[in-house]
Amino acid sequence: MVSARDEILGRIRAVDRPAPSPVSRDYERTRHAGDPVELLAERITDYQATVYRTAARELPYRIAERLDGRGRIVVPPDVPREWCVPEVPWLADAPPLTVAELDSADGVLSGCAIAIAETGTIVLDAGRGQGRRALTLVPDHHLCIVHADQIVVSVPEAIERLDPTAPLTFISGPSATSDIELDRVEGVHGPRTLEVLLVT
Amino acid sequence: MGRNPVTWLGSPTFPDAARDALGDTQLRGNLRKATTTIRGKRESAVAELGDWEELRRAGESVKDDVLANLDTYLERLEAAVTDRGGVVHWARDAEEANRIVLDLVQAEDTDEVVKVKSMATAEIGLNEALADGGVNAIETDLAEVIVQLGDDRPSHILVPAIHRNRAEIKEIFAQMPEPPTSDDPHALAEAARKYLRRKFLSAKVAISGANFGVADTGSIVVVESEGNGRMCLTLPETLITVMGVEKVLPRWQDLEVFLQLLPRSSTAERMNPYTSTWSGVTPGDGPQKFHLVLLDNGRTSTLADEVGRQALRCIRCSACLNVCPVYERTGGQAYGSVYPGPIGAILAPQLAGDLHDEQAASLPYASSLCGACYEVCPVRINIPEVLTHLRAEVVEAKGKRTPEAMAMSAAAWVFGDRRRYEAAQKAGSLTRFLARDGTLSSLPWPGSKWTDTRDAPVVPKESFRAWWRRNRG
Ligand code: SF4
């Protein structure tokens, strides 16, 4: 008996297909933005997320300001040490937290891989300071740190810089739905609050 | 080989179903409101990009490259996914895909799975097949929850419950353990969140579709809004993804085109809230078992049609539905397929692959050929061209017949057999002929031949899903 694989490939090969024409790529690969940091802040804010700008030396103070009193905060094991300010009761993911522990946490702090200014998107690649995907998914509040040198303007620039073999999550605002009368409503299953600290 | 479930068995032909829907003022009101809103938003989202036309041409040419080299890219995708610890399965048709998925689920010793909205699994009737095998598939997309709990059928690609307004949704959600407190969309979303949270946290197996599968890296891409996708793709131990073969993209770089085209065309956003990509299995992060089911189900035969094959470029954005005057007036259910609107009118009959099927054959007539769909399509599918082409094929297959004649012969087919008649009636497709006193009367010929002898009593209403479970296969 012919396997499904061979039959499907056989059906494709039996078709008289046109010779492939070259792929047209005359769209803009990079785009110019006067102030990419400002553009990113504006576009993230459009999604009903909150953006705070801070200087690098003030970052620990800002983290404390955002998270103090919020409860127990999940943190990937490899974030820079100065992020783990003493005011906050941290839940480090080492050893890995259970799903129940993540569910009972009050928030999560993470870094990111890159951010796309034009679309207001933060991309996580499970790399340094970000942890495995569940960490930034289950808790209801996500505080994400973005450094200015992680910002690109356009989607093509982002795709070029990302590692396709890593599990990637593109985040544009808090979770939302357009399923009720095609209106965007924030807050369904992912973190319902997204806060971004932009470090410049 | 069974019948292709891409069109719903027992559905009325388009002209008949449309006439029926036209009488439903609530439906028309809901639809008009939703599509008008989204049309305006899409225009501004698109206008923001100065290179939109260039992106459309790129989208078109990448997809044409895919179709020209489909065998090569599929083999490449298979190799990449396998290399990264995934298992690839191939399914010739719906029945085979359903069996593969059911076997995989049963091997994990569970009778409940969470699902993230996927057109491919809706197309093959996976939920019903799983139910037959004793597995409960829980839809997790808000719109799908509305459809599932409302015992209803989808009516839009992206927003399957677009025909429901907030008040109706509140009614449907009243059966949840913690019903919504009001019909405010926030309250409705909150109710759905509570309802599904336990399911997400405890599910062992998730089933998803795929928006794209990148051949050279094995990356599968799911574009979504609510985070239910992320839950399904991240928390369970086993992930099964069903992907139509035409969803493969050659290169990672191609995503830079589609991640711009898709969100702006579908929800009219610069970017949708969440996009996930993964390649095989990542140790210590997410599902440790990953299965990719590559689905044909009529795609290779569609590929063989020189004009019709462009329908395989479709990225399921639903922009063509939102601009279609026919869709706006009839709603999606009149098309009798999971693929409604202009894309449904060209894709469903081709996937069904049977122009002798009266219902499928009536779909290419579900258009006024105004061309609005072609203008908005992000991958430049010339829908009017394909519609005209398919109409010619219908006429060729069936002899010279007008659409009315076809609608009529469909009625003949349904009425010609007591069992089919009952099935169709329970599916709600005969309501157009219902007299006010609840009996069927004055049917057009040849139905009239039957009703002349006596009034047909109306069988008590049975839900579509109940009927489907009993009658399919
Ligand atoms: S045919 Fe074009 S516009 Fe319609 S859903 Fe497909 S990609 Fe979108």
TrEMBL record, chain A:
<feature type="domain" description="LUD">
    <location>
        <begin position="101"/>
        <end position="199"/>
    </location>
</feature>
<dbReference type="InterPro" id="IPR037171">
    <property type="entry name" value="NagB/RpiA_transferase-like"/>
</dbReference>
<protein>
    <submittedName>
        <fullName>LUD domain-containing protein</fullName>
    </submittedName>
</protein>
<dbReference type="Pfam" id="PF02589">
    <property type="entry name" value="LUD_dom"/>
</dbReference>
<dbReference type="InterPro" id="IPR024185">
    <property type="entry name" value="FTHF_cligase-like_sf"/>
</dbReference>
<dbReference type="InterPro" id="IPR003741">
    <property type="entry name" value="LUD_dom"/>
</dbReference>
Automatic annotation (TrEMBL), chain B:
<dbReference type="InterPro" id="IPR024185">
    <property type="entry name" value="FTHF_cligase-like_sf"/>
</dbReference>
<keyword id="KW-0411">Iron-sulfur</keyword>
<dbReference type="InterPro" id="IPR004452">
    <property type="entry name" value="LutB/LldF"/>
</dbReference>
<dbReference type="InterPro" id="IPR017900">
    <property type="entry name" value="4Fe4S_Fe_S_CS"/>
</dbReference>
<dbReference type="InterPro" id="IPR009051">
    <property type="entry name" value="Helical_ferredxn"/>
</dbReference>
<keyword id="KW-0813">Transport</keyword>
<keyword id="KW-0249">Electron transport</keyword>
<feature type="domain" description="4Fe-4S ferredoxin-type">
    <location>
        <begin position="311"/>
        <end position="381"/>
    </location>
</feature>
<keyword id="KW-0479">Metal-binding</keyword>
<feature type="domain" description="LUD">
    <location>
        <begin position="74"/>
        <end position="281"/>
    </location>
</feature>
<feature type="domain" description="Lactate utilization protein B C-terminal">
    <location>
        <begin position="398"/>
        <end position="470"/>
    </location>
</feature>
<dbReference type="Pfam" id="PF13183">
    <property type="entry name" value="Fer4_8"/>
</dbReference>
<dbReference type="InterPro" id="IPR003741">
    <property type="entry name" value="LUD_dom"/>
</dbReference>
<dbReference type="InterPro" id="IPR037171">
    <property type="entry name" value="NagB/RpiA_transferase-like"/>
</dbReference>
<keyword id="KW-0004">4Fe-4S</keyword>
<dbReference type="Pfam" id="PF11870">
    <property type="entry name" value="LutB_C"/>
</dbReference>
<dbReference type="InterPro" id="IPR024569">
    <property type="entry name" value="LutB_C"/>
</dbReference>
<dbReference type="InterPro" id="IPR017896">
    <property type="entry name" value="4Fe4S_Fe-S-bd"/>
</dbReference>
<protein>
    <submittedName>
        <fullName>LutB/LldF family L-lactate oxidation iron-sulfur protein</fullName>
    </submittedName>
</protein>
<keyword id="KW-0677">Repeat</keyword>
<dbReference type="Pfam" id="PF02589">
    <property type="entry name" value="LUD_dom"/>
</dbReference>
<keyword id="KW-0408">Iron</keyword>
